[in-house]
């Protein structure tokens, strides 16, 4: 169901718990919307409140983006870092709003991203580690240009599940393979897995993230 008018348009699946609930906040990929990852909501543990948000930049003829992707005359791809940082700040504010609006436990926040949503999940959590506990990053990578690293001690409390398809033709798996080492430099624990898939989430991948979520 679509509910309260917070900073970003979103869908909510409330927790079955009557007390403050842990939150899974879903950030979709480039050209998609809040309905995409929300299809996973019914398969996630009922103790969580699940919120899926719509990125703030509309695309034509449909879909949304967390930031624009541009190409030069030689087909080199560039990310609009200014837009990305603006989206990062919107996500931060939305988390703060959602904690109040939906009776969320502020010490149990999981960001669940896919592709561009993963990139923004990393950017948000690494900049504001006091707001986030876990990151589930699917088919994405860490873009250092979008991060202003937060408190070192807070960074060490983050837990990360990162996965990627070995046949991904949108974001090369080699980019994602750097994730564990980058996070290690921040003192962050990361479980990284590869699956024989393209730019998507297969059943084996989803089961692996559920198993990881159960431990964290």
Name the strands of the widest sheet in spatial order: 1-3-2-8-9-10-11
Largest sheet descriptor: 7 strands, mixed
Could you state the CATH homologous superfamily?
Answer: Alpha/Beta hydrolase fold, catalytic domain
Please give the number of β-strands.
11
Helix content: 25-40%
CATH architecture label? 3-Layer(aba) Sandwich
Return the string of H and E elements: EEHEEEEEHEHEHEHHEH
Gap between N and C termini? 27 Å
* Count of all domains: 1
How much of the polypeptide forms β-strand, as a percent range?
A: 25-35%
What is the mean pLDDT? 92
Q: What value does the Rg take, in angstroms? A: 16 Å
Outline type = globular
Q: Which class do the helix and strand fractions yield?
A: alpha/beta
The helix tally amounts to: 7
Q: Low-confidence parts lasting 5 or more residues at pLDDT below 50?
A: none
Q: How would you describe this structure to a colleague?
A:
There is one protein chain. The protein is an alpha/beta fold. The protein has one domain: 3-Layer(aba) Sandwich (Rossmann fold). It contains seven helices and eleven strands. The strands form three sheets. Strands 1-3-2-8-9-10-11 form a seven-stranded mixed β-sheet, with helices on both faces. It is globular and about 45 Å long. The two termini are 27 Å apart.
